[in-house]
Amino acid sequence: MGEQRACGDGRPRPVVPRLEARVSYALHPVLAANSLYRRLGAWLERRRLAYRWFARVERVAKERLYGCRMCGQCALPDTGYTCPMTCPKQLRNGPCGGVAADGRCEVHPELACVWVIAFERAQGAGHGSDLDLLQRPVDHREWDRSSWVNYWQGRDDGLGTAPSKDEPRPLLRRELGLRPR
Predict the structure, then answer these.
(1) Is residue 7 part of a domain?
(2) I need a surface site. Which of 17, 23, 30, 116 has the fewest CB within 10 A?
(3) How far does CA 64 lie from the centroid of its chain?
(4) Rounded to an integer, what distance in angstroms lies between the CA atom of residue 36 and that of residue 96?
(5) Does residue 87 form part of some domain?
(6) Which residues pair with 160 in a beta bridge?
(7) For residue 179, pLDDT beyond 60
(8) Mutual angle of helices 35-46 and 48-66, in 10-degree steps
(9) Closest Cα partner for 5 from 110, 75, 159?
């Protein structure tokens, strides 16, 4: 389940994370940015070999637990700890218009839509409002870089941004056929 999978055309396949969302949210503070982690991140960036090993460990852990694609701009905490990059269309702000009424992926109908999984996990863990955050487009220059180091160094600040009051985010709920708040 948690392993990274791609279909024959190279597009990713939706993944159901192995680690419960509640556990993931509970573990998040352990990796929260602080002065020690900022120093560690800076030290790793000055030592290419150490950085490569660190990123490799991060890749293996996150790939096995969440299906992580190592985009370098982790949205897991904002998406119910479901990697949006496992969406075959790599959509970071909600499902495509082709998600089936039963929540199945348009590209891989035998699998659940990543965004349905994300919604169920976030809601179940009491973090449904996290899905209201808008994600910046992926910066493809960051692929294969450590998102933990990027996070600790503040490069992910504003990755998930709250919409303005003039532009509320009922779209995801509407796309999933859910009631507005």
Answers:
(1) no
(2) 30
(3) 14
(4) 40
(5) yes
(6) 135
(7) no
(8) 120
(9) 110
> Whole-model pTM above 0.90?
no
24 dihedral zone (left: phi>0; alpha: psi -120 to 50; beta): alpha
Residue 15 belongs to a domain: no
Confidence of residue 163 (pLDDT cuts 50, 70, 90): low
Task: Return the pLDDT at 138.
Answer: 87
Of 78, 86, 128, the residue nearest 107 (C-alpha): 86
CB 87 within 8 A of CB 115: yes
Q: Give Cβ neighbours of residue 141 (< 8 Å, ≥ 6 apart).
A: none
Residue 4: predicted pLDDT:
42
Structure tokens given for 96: 């495509």
pLDDT at 8 over 80: no
Return all residues near 117 (Cβ < 8 A) that are at least 6 apart: 14, 16, 17, 80, 82
Handedness of CA 66, 71, 72, 74 (dihedral sign): negative
Helix/strand/coil for 43: helix
Would 67 be classed as within a structural domain? yes
